[in-house]
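Bench notes, afternoon.
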Amino acid sequence: MDSSFSDDLDVRAAAERLVGPLRELAALAESQRRLPDETMRLLRASGLLTLLQPASCGGREMTMRAHLDAVSTVAKGCNAAAWVLGVYHAHSWMMGHMSRQAQLDVYGENPDQPISAVIGPRGKAVRQRDGGYVLSGFWPFCSGNAAARWLLLGAEIFDEAGAKLDEGDLLVATEAVERLDDWRVAGLQGTGSNSVRCEGVRVPAHRYLSLSELLENPTPPYADPVAPSLYKAQAGPVLGLCIASAAPGMARGAIEEFLRVVPGKRVNYTDHVSHDWTPVQAALGEASGEVHAAELLLERIADDIDDHMRRAQKMSMRLRGRIRFELALAVRLCRAAVERLYTIGGAAGLQLSSPIQRAARNLQAVNMHGLLLYESGAEIFGRVELGLDPGTTVI
C-alpha cells in the first residue's frame, strides 16, 4: 500500500469529537471576527490540521476523501472553523509542490504550522537577477491569517524590463506584511479573512511556486515516480474541493438545529403545529434530499481526484470541467436547503444566536467565492462539452 494512505487517524471520529466544543465557540468566532485561540488549539490537538501536509514535513499525507470527511464534519460545529481548516488544507497541499528549502522554512522548527493564502495573482513581483523576487500588492480575503506565521501570496511575475513571465505564489512570513482589520462582513465573519498588503518585500527564489505549472502538472512531484501520490492530484479540482467541503456540514448542522427547535412549535396565526404541518414536512424532506445530493457530488469528486492521483494520471479536460461545475452545484444545493428551512422555521430564527441564520449567511458567502460561482461553472462545463477552450486556466 502507498504510505500516503496508511495513516491510522480515524478522521471522521476525530472530527466528530470537535463538533460539540466548536459549536460552543461558534458565536465567539463571529464576535471576534476570527477563529478563537481555543478553536485553533482544538484543531491542532485533533490531528486534522495536517491531513494534506507532506509526511516529510510532519504531515499525515492522506486523501481528498479524508479531507472532505474532516471539513464537512467540523462544519456542523463551527462553519468558520471548517472553512479555515479547508483552506489550510489547500495551502499545505500546495507546499507539497514547493522546494525542500521552502518546506523547511515553514515546518522545520514546528510541523504544526497553518499557512494562510490568497492564491490568485492579485499582486506584482519583479524577478531579480539573483533569481529572487520583489513583491508588492494588496490581497483581500486572506482567511485564517491571524493564526498563520506564513502566507502564500499570488502575483503576476515580471522581469526587470517589465515583461510578464508567469503567474505564481510566493511564500512570505506574516511579519513581512501588514494585516488590516477590515473583515466586517455578512457571512463567514468568523474566518478572520482580513486583507494583507506589502510593498517591496524581498522573497528568495526557493519560495516561489509557479501557478501555471501547478495547474497543468509540470511541477516536480508530477514527474517523480517516487513522489507521494497525493501531490500528483489535479490542482484545480483539489483547490476547488478544499473551499467547497465545508458546505454540506454547514447545511447538516442547520438541519440538526431545525429538528431540535421546530417540532412542537405553533404556526402563528393558524391552528397548526409545525411538525404536523405539510409545508414543514415537505421543506424538511426537500432540504434533506438537497444536502444528500450535495454530499454525493462532493464524495464523487473526492473519489475521482483520489483515483487519478493514485494512478498518477492527469484528468481529462471534460472531467475537470464537470468538477468545476459540480462544485458550484453542490454548494448551491446546500444554500437552497438552508434557506428553505430558515424561512419556514419561523421568525425566532432571526436571532443572531441561531445556528440556522448563521449557516444561511455563511452559505451565501460560500456561493459567492469566485471558484464556486454557479454561472461561471456552468459556462465553463458547457464550453468544454462543446469542444471549446474552457476560457480559464483555473480548471
